[in-house]
Design a protein that fits this description.
- With about 240 residues, this protein is mainly alpha-helical.
- It folds into two domains: about 150 residues, no CATH class; about 80 residues, no CATH class.
- About 60% of the residues lie in helices and about 10% in strands.
- The chain has eleven helices and four strands.
- A hairpin with a 5-residue loop joins strand 1 and strand 2.
- The two termini are about 30 Å apart.
């Protein structure tokens, strides 16, 4: 199991699990099935509609070919790094440096699909994904991207949160905490843990920024002066109110 750390704009380091060869191969297969079925239907309709015009049939064939060729590029660019197959497998293309990949990044990955996948029948991509430390094929290396599972690991699981539930006679301070999602709670827990482990200016700033964000999510008027205690309280309230 390979992992990668990405620093967010709030200086919070999230750990993602890299998509393995199986995930990416299944996603590719799903994409191909969807493409073949949808384009076959489109081609059949086009041929039947323009059966008496060779020029029109040629145009239809060109359109179908373009859709097949540019499918992955268009979907990843317009759908935040996910094709239909990637959506089904819950994996996504992200920038190694964090943030959203750009058109040039997706284009670089798309161009090298010819070498990584099509010309080598997937051999080069398979070897590189399984052998490289960041599970990157040539297109990923050139574009400085990686394919990850959508939910960050952050070295946490629900057991970490449920442990807080063992406290007796606890009265929640912020009933709005039930509005948070599980990923929000994990992010709060990860940020607090990193601040305690690495007490520096960057992680303190992350605590402050996250406290402000949580304040907005919970529609609170003010945040207590001690942001660390505020986040810890919200986390405890979330566990008590949702478990």
């Amino acid at each position: 199991m390979k992992n990668i750390e990405i620093k967010t704009t709030q200086n919070v380091v999230l750990q993602y699990e890299l998509a393995d060869l199986r995930d990416r191969a299944i996603a590719f297969f799903i994409d191909m099935v969807c493409l073949v079925i949808s384009l076959s239907i489109l081609l059949a309709i086009g041929m039947a509609t323009f059966s008496f015009s060779e020029t029109a049939q040629t145009v239809v064939q060109i359109v179908v070919s373009c859709l097949f060729i540019f499918y992955s590029l268009a979907f990843e660019m317009l759908n935040k790094g996910q094709s239909i197959g990637k959506m089904a497998m819950r994996i996504q293309v992200i920038k190694m440096a964090g943030g959203q990949a750009t058109f040039s990044d997706y284009a670089a990955r798309w161009i090298f699909r010819l070498v990584d996948i099509y010309f080598s029948l997937g051999g080069i991509a398979s070897i590189l994904i399984t052998s490289s430390p960041k599970a990157q094929r040539i297109g990923d290396v050139v574009a400085h991207t990686a394919v990850v599972k959508m939910v960050p690991k952050m070295d946490l699981d629900l057991e970490d949160l449920l442990a807080i539930h063992e406290q007796k006679a606890y009265t929640p301070h912020y009933v709005q905490a039930r509005q948070l999602h599980e990923e929000d709670a994990l992010l709060i827990k990860a940020t607090l843990d990193r601040y305690r482990k690495f007490d520096n200016d960057a992680h303190h700033e992350a605590i402050v920024l996250l406290a402000q964000k949580v304040k907005q999510l919970l529609s609170l008027d003010t945040v207590p002066g001690d942001e660390q205690r505020f986040l810890q309280t919200v986390l405890q309230d979330y566990v008590i109110l949702t478990r």
